[in-house]
Amino acid sequence: MRGSDRAEKRGSDRADVVICGAGIAGIAAAYHLAVRRGITNVVLVDERPPLTLTSDKSTECYRNWWPGPGDAMVALMNRSIDLLEELARESGNVFRMNRRGYLFATADPARARRFVTAAEEAAALGAGRARVHATASSDYRPAPSDGFENQPVGADVITEPALIRRHFPYLADDTVAVLHTRRCGWLRKGRTLLSAMPAVFVTRKKPPRRFGRLAAELSLVRAMSHNPTT
Predict the structure, then answer these.
(1) pTM tops 0.85
(2) How confident is the model over 110-134, as pLDDT tens digits?
(3) Domain assignments of the chain as residue spans, ordered by start
(4) Which residues in 97-117 are b (16+ Cβ under 10 Å) and which e?
């Protein structure tokens, strides 16, 4: 074996960062290290191909609608959604991120009042402005079925029956209020999301011998930037 070949083989057995698990959390960590931070030798260790255990099974919903105490979860989710939107823009929204929101409905007048309180509390935590629509001429903006750009944040509480029927005709006639949380939605799951991350994921079926007894059960995925200089 030539000296250069031996050096390459030794290098393939080493990594700057090893991430255990190639689910959405592991893939996201590898992407940010390799592409955004310029760490060029990142390895994911998993017995399955990326995003094939639980990451491709869930609905992949997101929301910044979280109760207190404190604003920690709202701040975390606002930052997470910012990153999702960056990926959507960079990829042409290949994973079909939308901002359709979550809708809560009630026939109980007392719960209608709690909708308003919940929207105001969420606004105080940083989820966005609370808007109450109590007349048929209100400026409520329904959410489009696709896309996420130029949509309101916060929450809309609708208490006007005609407005509810106009925008949500499928709800029961005795509905007295709806709460529409706006910075919420879902996206196409699983490997479609992987295609939005502009990194090269090279799967090696057999890990190096130095992983010992685990070697028979693991596969390695090496994450690298598309840019060969980073």
Answers:
(1) no
(2) 999 999 999 999 999 999 999 999 9
(3) 3-57+190-225, 61-186
(4) bbbbbbbebbeeeeebeebbe
